[in-house]
Amino acid sequence: MALLIVGLVIFFATHYFTALARNARAGLIQRVGEGPYKGLYSLVTLIGFALIVIGWRSADASALYAPPAFLRHATLGLMPFATILIIAAYAPAGRIAATVKHPMLAAIKIWAFAHLLSNGEVRSVLLFGAFLVFAVIDRIAVKRRGESGRPAGSIVNDVIVVAAGLLAYGAIYLWAHAWIAGVPLRY
Predict the structure, then answer these.
(1) Contact indicator for 168, 86 with CB cutoff of 8 Å
(2) How distant is the alpha carbon of residue 140 from its chain centre?
(3) C-alpha gyration radius of the chain
């Protein structure tokens, strides 16, 4: 459990730094340069993420609550929306990205909430709860900064985003979830 907690602290420390300490971030970039800052940020974030994955897989799976079996289907039903929004966050903007405004944060909220529905072990509640809290706090910070998202682009971009999101979901369902989390999706 300690590795999971350390990973979460490292991962979210970097993200909260960029979300909440904008002046300190700008000062650091000015001192070391944008390239070195981005490299260090990426390295620290990747270390945190690796520790989260290793920590979650090795943490005790004691149950905090026992979700009903039907909530697994709710999780499976919500996850395509999360994968579509993740793709929308990085693809050329369409109406989906413009409507949602911050598709990555929306995707994180859906992903975390969906997994809290079907995972009641302490390690999962800690993991998904931390991501849900982060996404809510970061969305509030983004709104306070006045960031409004991207303007709407072509509907063709949305078709591509939906297709890519569903393909990503299929890959996660069939293969990647078992590889990353050590839990195959067999419902």
Answers:
(1) yes
(2) 16
(3) 18
Per DSSP (E only), the strands in 28-157 are: none
Which long-range contacts (C-beta less than 8 Å, at least 24 apart) are formed by 13-22? Answer: 13/48, 14/41, 14/44, 14/45, 14/48, 15/45, 15/134, 15/138, 16/134, 16/137, 19/137, 19/138, 19/141, 19/142, 20/141, 22/145
Residue 63 has what pLDDT? 92
pTM of the model: 0.87
The DSSP call for residue 47 is H
- The CA distance from 37 to 14, in Å, is 11
At how many degrees (to 10) do helices 2-20 and 22-32 cross?
A: 90
The per-residue pLDDT for 186 is: 65
Each residue's pLDDT tens digit, 63-105? 999 999 899 999 999 999 999 999 999 999 999 999 999 999 9
Residue 2, judged by CB atoms within 10 A of its CB (0-12, 13-18, 19+), counts as exposed
30 token code pair: 């000015």
Point out the residues of the chain with pLDDT beneath 50.
Answer: none
Sign of torsion over alpha carbons 81, 83, 89, 94: negative
Nearest to 80 by CA among 178, 18, 168: 168
Confidence at residue 21, expressed as pLDDT on a 0 to 100 scale: 79
DSSP 93: P
Give me 133's structure tokens. Answer: 């809290």
Q: Yes or no: say if 102 and 136 are a contact pair by the CB < 8 Å rule.
A: no
